[in-house]
Design goal:
single chain; three-stranded antiparallel β-sheet
Length: about 80
Amino acid sequence: MAEGAAIVRSFRVGKRTATLTIQAPRSGRANYVTGWSPDTPPFLTRKEMRQYRVGRSRAIAELARLLNIDGDVLIIES
């Protein structure tokens, strides 16, 4: 597990594997990094974006359960 990582989860997105590394929260905020294998896609199709968001949501929900967070989680995409 990466330095300071709370959880690392991998899931399929089309023909690729996305690996989410979610950092341990500080001051109520947590950041994550997405790695791709075998390569980073230049773009995601609508279907792949749905797959990515489902996998990401599951990983974030798992982190919230592990930390006993009872409330909403906000995700900001950029």
